[in-house]
Design goal:
The structure holds two protein chains of two kinds. Chain A is mainly β. Chain A is built from no helices and eleven strands. The chains are: A mainly beta, B mainly beta.
Chain lengths: ~110, ~120
């Protein structure tokens, strides 16, 4: 068990570019979450998968944000036409159904210049 | 509108003493509460949780107290150790595990343990 893995750890991109982040959850976990954390704030819930089904996506920040989890394994979060306000830490977490808490990855820090 | 509030951005406690971190919430639908600990450059780590049917839950040096009528919970760490220095997040959800509602987090309290 190597925990929740996120790639890349850091990403610097120019405004207007598209970016994609990857999350590899703990293998037996069927639930996967994406959160965003900005400076001085707690993590903010974005979206949730149970296996391959995306059961909640209304909290994605705009239609520029999308997430996938093909075959219920790894997940990707894509941001199109990035804006400076998208600069943040993007956290992925996974859990088993009924678990008390999630296991978070170390996050991907996005800087939009 | 902050539904989970941690009003102390930072707290300094002497090693060996008790650390008390506080959290207030406004959403009556919250039924499950968690504390996470975060070191710099790492993701949050789950510490302890409590369901609304309980008023106390203990795990080693960590105890969480829930006062549902006051919509208030607290995390007690006894005795405090240098490795406890971190940012602590309070989180809440309408159900255990978050599910489609996710977790709602507070802004965090930076705990500093002084030698």
């Amino acid at each position: 068990d190597t925990g929740v893995s996120q790639d890349p750890r850091h990403k610097i991109t120019k405004r207007g570019q598209n970016v994609t982040f990857r999350c590899d959850p703990i293998s037996e976990h069927n639930r996967l979450y994406w959160y965003r954390q900005t400076l001085g704030q707690g993590p903010e819930f974005l979206t949730y998968f149970q296996n391959e089904a995306q059961l909640e996506k209304s909290r994605l920040l705009s239609d520029r944000f999308s997430a996938e989890r093909p075959k219920g394994s790894f997940s990707t979060l894509e941001i199109q036409r990035t804006e400076q306000g998208d600069s943040a830490m993007y956290l992925c977490a996974s859990s088993l159904m009924g678990a008390r808490g999630y296991t978070f990855g170390s996050g991907t820090r996005l800087t939009v210049v | 509108d902050q539904q989970v509030k941690q009003n102390s951005p930072s707290l300094s406690v002497q090693e060996g003493r008790i650390s008390i971190l506080n959290c207030d919430y406004t959403n009556s639908m919250f039924d499950y509460f968690l504390w996470y600990k975060k070191y710099p450059a790492e993701g949050p780590t789950f510490l302890i949780s409590i369901s609304s049917i309980k008023d106390k839950n203990e795990d080693g040096r960590f105890t969480v107290f829930l006062n549902k009528s006051a919509k208030h919970l607290s995390l007690h760490i006894v005795p405090s150790q240098p490795g406890d220095s971190a940012v602590y997040f309070c989180a809440a959800s309408p159900l255990r595990g978050g599910g489609a509602d996710g977790l709602t987090f507070g802004k965090g309290t930076h705990l500093i343990i002084q030698p």
